[in-house]
Design goal:
By secondary structure, the chain is an alpha/beta fold. The protein folds into 3 domains: 107 residues, no CATH class; 110 residues, Nucleotidyltransferase, domain 5 (2-Layer Sandwich); 186 residues, ATPase, nucleotide binding domain (Nucleotidyltransferase, domain 5, 2-Layer Sandwich). It contains 13 helices and 17 strands. The chain has a 5-stranded mixed sheet. It has a 4-stranded mixed sheet with strand order 2-1-3-4. A hairpin with a 5-residue loop joins β1 and β2. α8 packs across α13. The N and C termini lie far apart (63 Å).
Length: 464
């Protein structure tokens, strides 16, 4: 009996990862198989904060089919994608009972997806549950969006927090008059005061270039609800007790220290999408930031951001059982390992590139980028591989997001690397998924790639 990844083979094979098995092709092949076999409905719903519900209608094989087990694998991967793209503390599975029971067992304390079980429960502060029912009993969608950003009036500070560096901008009426990038190491900081002091230092640098400060807006890796960090790799070194008592109030404490001015912080992917919508003056748009991890954000056709998680660092990209494991979640083949500095470092040894392990993340990336600029063939294969991944991933993302534009930015796209990624992704999309020719995949200019998020973040708060 074949596994899901064996149902389809890509036309474009990354030179440095010949076993790459894109989810987009496997899912498409499975659904075609199901339709030919007399498919039955599989309806999934996820409830997140404030009663918002995402609903996803798909298909699976009938229980009588000799390869019905593929339905279990397919459903688990779709639930995984939905959890990290949309978020949720409750999953409702409407379909064959074995499918629902498989999801319940996997997403449980001690199950294969125990990380996701714990994470989602922590984000939404509710016990994570899986309910099994019939398709007709699955609730309808009840989505929620919010208008945020695009405010360019006044004197503002914008910041962007990544795992390897923090950026800050001083912005006057939509124009950046000062930008600064500082290398830092937040993930190994055990005292929440470290994050507070670093941000106050950043604000101080920006304030020197402003006559006054009217508002502060920020983007940061992780999950933020109501300006409160819920879970984020930036604070992994902070003990849970200190996180729950100090870190959750970090941005409220910063706002107080800055005189109580309007202050907003959201996930860095959301600001990526917002930056794209502002620069392109069009939507809907999916923003992808290739930094120390992968950040995703989405602006709807109405120009609003959603209450979805959009944590695409954890969505499944590669179904091959030999795919690399995420060092945090333990799952295989997830986004962060294909569209971030982690992807570069994963591929570098296969390309004959040795990088000093004692260097910081930003310095390690610069080593590989310098070789790329110098014409190193192995380095070029690294970025071509990432571009191949992206072409297939965008086809997969199109099943979950309505997209007219995709904007990619972040340190990994700096220099000629971004052009290589873009060229390869477009080649894959054109050959494998011609029906997606309407999607425009673009890079911002070099300056926007590196500090654009901090500038867009400054536009988040409305002035009182």
């Amino acid at each position: 009996m074949p596994n899901l990844y064996e149902l389809a083979k890509p036309k474009f094979i990354p030179a440095l990862e010949p076993d790459f098995s894109p989810a987009a092709l496997a899912d498409r092949a499975f659904l075609n198989m199901a339709k030919e076999a007399g498919a039955v409905p599989l309806v999934l719903a996820l409830e997140r904060g404030n009663g918002a519900i995402t609903r996803f209608d798909t298909l699976c094989l009938p229980e009588s089919h000799p390869q019905f087990a593929l339905s279990l694998e397919y459903a688990e991967r779709v639930v995984k994608f939905l959890l990290w793209a949309r978020g949720g503390w409750r999953v409702i599975v409407g379909g064959p009972k074995p499918v629902g029971e498989h999801i319940r067992a996997a997403y449980s304390n001690g199950g294969a997806r125990a990380f996701d079980f714990d994470f989602m429960g922590g984000v939404y502060e509710k016990p994570f549950t899986v309910e099994v029912t019939t398709p007709e009993n699955v609730p309808l969608a009840l989505e929620s969006t919010m208008s945020l950003g695009g405010h360019l009036d006044g004197c503002r500070i914008g910041f962007d927090l990544g795992a390897s560096d923090r950026k800050v901008s001083a912005v006057v009426n939509g124009e950046a008059v000062f930008t600064e990038e500082v290398v830092w190491d937040p993930r190994n900081a055990t005292d929440p005061q470290y994050h507070f002091d670093e941000l106050m230092a950043a604000f101080g640098s920006a304030a020197k270039h402003l006559p006054r400060i009217d508002a502060i807006g920020g983007s940061a890796a992780g999950v933020y609800i109501g300006n409160r960090p819920r879970v984020a790799s930036l604070y992994r070194g902070v003990p849970k007790e200190l996180f729950d008592t100090k870190t959750v109030n970090l941005f409220f404490d910063l706002q107080k220290a800055m005189g109580g001015i309007p202050f907003e912080v959201v996930n860095d992917g959301e600001v990526t999408a917002l930056a794209g919508a502002m620069s392109l003056e069009d939507k809907p748009i999916l923003g992808l930031a290739f930094g120390s991890s992968l950040a995703g954000g989405y602006v709807t056709p109405k120009g609003e951001i959603t209450t979805w998680l959009n944590e695409l660092a954890f969505v499944p990209i590669d179904y091959h059982p030999s795919a690399a494991a995420c060092e945090w979640s333990g799952d295989l083949g997830v986004g962060a390992l294909y569209f971030s500095q982690q992807a570069v470092f994963k591929l570098a040894p296969k390309a004959g590139i040795e990088i000093d392990p004692n260097l910081g993340l930003a310095e390690k990336l610069l080593v590989a980028q310098k070789l790329l600029k110098e014409g190193h063939q192995g380095a070029r294969q690294v970025w071509e591989s990432i571009g191949t991944y992206l072409g297939y991933a965008l086809a997969q993302f199109s099943n979950y997001y309505e997209m007219k534009h995709v904007l990619i930015l972040g340190r990994v796209t700096s220099g000629i690397g971004g052009d290589i990624i873009l060229s390869k992704a477009k080649e894959v999309l054109s050959a494998e998924f011609p029906e997606l020719s309407h999607i425009s995949v673009t890079l911002p200019d070099e300056k926007t790639r590196r500090v654009g998020q901090a500038v867009a973040a400054a536009s988040l708060p409305a002035l009182r």
